[in-house]
């Protein structure tokens, strides 16, 4: 009888002891790790029956994932494109952002078209094709939209050039050789432009006509205003 009791007690101490509050071992003195879904660990040796919660590794799920691994049991590699290859041990979000060309937080997708650089925080210039803007560098390989130049297509054409990459000189018939940066039409000081016709840029008769009409209109307005003032 006594032998049986002692045996039972020993067995109970060693194996049967139902530890609570995430403890295990003799007298439940050892605290357990982070089992998945908050499960209780094995009461004898502290292992998690179904593995670890995100951010911890087996068998006891007490140790945190090293900086280049994440998820349950630390089985996922941080993205190759994480800056310094370190990510959040639970979510995989790259702690220090992405290397150039990749999109936060996981850095496993390329930058959206029109953006580039680290964390995709750069905005592409006026590339001829938005999709062609280089995701790492922001360069526009096939060139720029009319009116812009430079490898990033961010610089507007200087005044006497126009067209894609600003490589066409404005027509010599334009006054001061100035034309719109995106097309060959002559740029006019008064911000009107005339369609370029044979030696017709800066057509004086047209200007005289416009000037005259404006003059006449303003004269009429003055006369009317004066007439009203006199009547009162
Ligand atoms: C812990 O105990 C469980 C259940 O008895 C067993 O399957 C597992 O292999 C043990 N793990 C270690 C590390 O002792
Ligand atoms: C993580 O990287 C290691 C070493 O490069 C590789 O062997 C393993 O298959 C990768 N794991 C996953 C889930 O991609
Ligand atoms: C990228 O994002 C990380 C994390 O938010 C930040 O620490 C870093 O300064 C960012 N770098 C750039 C160049 O935007
Ligand atoms: C200027 O434009 C006219 C009309 O488009 C064209 O005939 C002429 O060749 C151009 N001149 C130059 C120097 O490009």
Automatic annotation (TrEMBL):
One of its GO terms (molecular function) is scavenger receptor activity. The keyword Membrane applies. InterPro entries: MEGF10/SREC1/2-like. Residues 1-18 form the signal peptide. Keywords: EGF-like domain, Membrane, Signal, Transmembrane, Transmembrane helix. The chain crosses the membrane at residues 206-230. This is Endothelial cells scavenger receptor. It comes from Magallana gigas (Pacific oyster).
